[in-house]
Every structure is written in structure tokens, then in C-alpha cells.
Amino acid sequence: MLPVFFWLFAALMLGFAVAVVLNRNPVASALSLVVSFVFLSALFFMLDAYFIGIIEILVYAGAVMVLFLFVIMLLDLKAEERRKFNIGVLIGGIVVAAAFFAQIFAVVQELPFGGQTFPHLATSDAGLQDVQNVGHILFSSYNLPFQVIGVLLLVATIGVVVLSKRELK
Question: Where are the strands (E) in the chain, listed by range?
Fold first, then answer.
């Protein structure tokens, strides 16, 4: 993996993740999240985890974001009104973020393999070893949680439709 591309994709991903939080328009925020997912999948591609990168685009940038956009449109969200700028909240947020990053840095420095690069994944002749491993683990060890998440998404979608029904006056 070229370090220049890693830092470029990581910086763009984090920039669009910040745009998700800072945008006042919910549709622009959702689209910024899609772009952030695309750059995250580019990082997976650079690690030779092609299956995870494709799933990132198909599932998160595709299906989940379509669900988010439907929820936004069904709830008929208006643009959030401007609030007064609170300097205390900003300083508190910066202090908490700095403490969080300092803690992450300290933990990574203590790990024995924290400074080493990630090794390439072992692939078979067909190049499908990572797909087989993920599929085998997903459907053998994590089949029940996988099904529960599907049911939760269905219930959440039905709940949004019920909540967004308008009463006739």
C-alpha cells in the first residue's frame, strides 16, 4: 500500500465524516456519509480485502444509505435553524476529542505490532480465500446475529412508515 494514497484516502474519509456532522441539511449529510463510505472501501481495497471493500459499497453506501434517505424523506425534516455559537461547548468538544486521540495514540504505541505494516492476505489460486473465510464465519458462527439484524432493520423500517403517517384533519 502506498503511504501517499493511504493518507489521501484517510484524510478525505475523515473530512467527509466531519461534513456529516457539520451539515445542517440532512440530505447533504447523508450524501457526505456515502462519500465517506466510498473512501473507506478504497482503504480496504488497498489492504487487498476486496470482498470487504465491495460489501462496504454495496451494503452501506447502497442499501443502508437508501434506507436513510427514505427515512429523511418520510419524516419531512426541515433544515435546522441556526443556533447561537457557544464557545464553551466548542472548547469542551476540542478537549474531549484531544483526550480521545491521545488515548488512542498511547494504546497503539503500547501494542507490540503497533508500528508494523499490515501483512497481505493469503489468497488461494482462485483468489477467493477471503470470500470463503468471511462467508464460512458469517453463516456458521454468526448466523443468529445476522438474522436478528435483518429483523431489526425490518422492524425499524415499519416503525418509520407508521410514525410518518399523517393524520387527516
Answer: none
1-81: what CATH class? mainly alpha
Q: Taking the complete model, does pTM exceed 0.70, yes or no?
A: no
pLDDT average per 10 residues of sequence, the chain (169 residues): 86 93 83 91 87 85 78 65 76 92 86 69 57 78 83 81 67
Run of H or E residues at 58: none
CA distance 162 to 158: 6
**Beta-carbon count within 10 A of 142 CB:** 12
CB < 8 Å & 24+ apart, contacts of 101-108: none
Q: How many whole angstroms separate alpha carbon 25 and alpha carbon 23?
A: 6
Residue 9: its H or E element:
helix 3-22
Q: What are phi and psi of 116, to 5 degrees?
A: -90, 155
**Per-domain boundaries in the chain:** 1-81, 83-114, 128-169
The amino acid at 123: T
Contact status, residue 84 vs residue 156, Cβ threshold 8 Å = no
Residue 2 CA to residue 156 CA, distance in Å, equals 41
